[in-house]
Amino acid sequence: MTAPSETPISLTRTRTPNTRPADASLSFGKVFTDHMFVMDYIEGKGWHDPRVVPYGPLTLDPATSVLHYGQAIFDGLKAFRGADGAIRLFRAQRHAERLNKSARALCIPEMDPGLVRRSFEAIVAADHAWVPSSPGTSLYIRPTVIATDVMLGVHPAHSYTYFVICSPVGAYYKEGVKPVRILATDTHVRAVQGGLGEAKTAANYAASLSAQQEAERAGYTQVLWLDGVERKWIDEVGTMNIMMRIGDEVITPPLAGTILDGVTRNSILQLLRDWGHKVSERKVSIDEVMQAGRDGTLREMWGTGTAAVVSPVGELGYKGETIRIGQGQTGALTQKLYDAITAIQYGRAPDPHGWTSVV
Ligand code: COI
Question: Which stretches does UniProt call biased (Polar residues) (predicted)?
Fold first, then answer.
């Protein structure tokens, strides 16, 4: 049972609004807007009571199931303020559908995707003054569902809370839009087929932390995950999908159950195909990429993600060897992709695929 897409959303405004920080001070996900969207689920009644309320803490019993067994999903999308002053959501419908896909993987009751989309619009409308306008800034929107049963038995909960919070953001990486260093690991694994790799769930990120910490200590920005069985096929980076240009072929790992079906990944593949590039969604081994790095055919590598946008990769480490990619500089195609997708997001270029919607 699910609240229909046209269910009215109530609005209670905060009495103590905060001031948005200066655009130049924004990093990623450290300040939050004045309001949040909330909706509840109870078995028998379904999803109900969609509302925008003042931003504030959730009160949870210490035995709340999400705190123990991690039955939680989230997604992430952005709103952009264009030079024309309009605020555009990027691919809101696809994000709403992906949230439901993650819900199915975690036994969480699905929501009406139209209502999920309206939850994004309602929170952005309430906090429109928080959408920054400088180049490279946006409002990051974080929809999340948590299991709220108070119980210690391990089984899907009977009650849930859906909430949406927003954060004005700049670049995700401290490098900004400069190339990052990534480290492939075959000592830790994160996802296997049949597991949760393709769901956006807290567990995937918990599973990434110790390898991420080791990579950071070794001077890298992120981990490049390999498949969990043979430990040789490239999967994705902790916070973004990965793509590379070897010779004239752009390669990205296929959606085979262990990686996120990235919305930016999908958009970038579409742009590349629109431009007539040879694009392969195929298995690619770390050995093939390292060899291409050694013989100079690895021309560019970049990550794609809502937070990461299009992030150039300047160095790739694996088993004690580090290869530099494109002299450690941002590649021409990487830059062209970044420029093209951001031009659509900020409304500076036509949107032939209808990806943006004005709030
Ligand atoms: C996103 O790009 O939206 C993500 O969720 C990545 C990360 C910040 C967890």
Answer: 1-19
Residue with tokens 């992030």: 311
Residue 135 CB contacts under 8 Å (≥ 6 apart), including other chains: none
Last residue of a domain, one of 118, 150, 171: 171
The reply to whether ligand 1 has any atom less than 6 angstroms from the CB of 307 is yes
Tell how far the Cα of 133 is from the centroid of ligand 1, in angstroms: 21
Structure-derived torsion over alpha carbons of residues 94, 108, 191, 255, reported in degrees to the nearest 10: -30
Ligand 1 neighbour 305 (Cβ under 6 A): yes
CA atoms 242, 221, 307, 298: torsion sign: negative
What is the band of 223 on the pLDDT scale with cuts at 50, 70, 90?
very high
Please tell me the total count of domains within the chain: 2
pLDDT digits (tens, 9 = 90+) for 21-71: 999 999 999 999 999 999 999 999 999 999 999 999 999 999 999 999 999
Does residue 143's CB lie within 6 angstroms of at least one atom of ligand 1? no
Q: Are residues 142 and 231 located together in one domain of the fold? A: no
Distance between CA atoms of 235 and 228, rounded to whole angstroms? 9
In a domain, 163, yes or no: yes
Distance 265 CA to ligand 1 centre (A): 13
pTM: 0.96
State in Å: Cα 238 to ligand 1 middle.
9
Domain membership flag for residue 35:
yes
Ligand 1 centroid distance, CA of 293 (Å)? 28
Tens of pLDDT, residue by residue over 133-142, are 999 999 999 9
In the predicted model, what is the mean pLDDT of residues 221-231?
96
Task: Kindly state whether residue 107 falls inside one of the protein's structural domains.
Answer: yes
Sequence-distant (≥ 6) Cβ neighbours of residue 115 within 8 angstroms: 2, 3, 4, 5, 7, 39, 47, 50
Q: How many CB atoms lie within 10 A of CB 119?
A: 26
Residue 109, ligand 1, Cβ within 6 A = no
Whether 317 contacts 182, CB under 8 Å = yes
CA of 347 to the centre of ligand 1 (A): 22
ipTM for the predicted complex comes to: 0.96
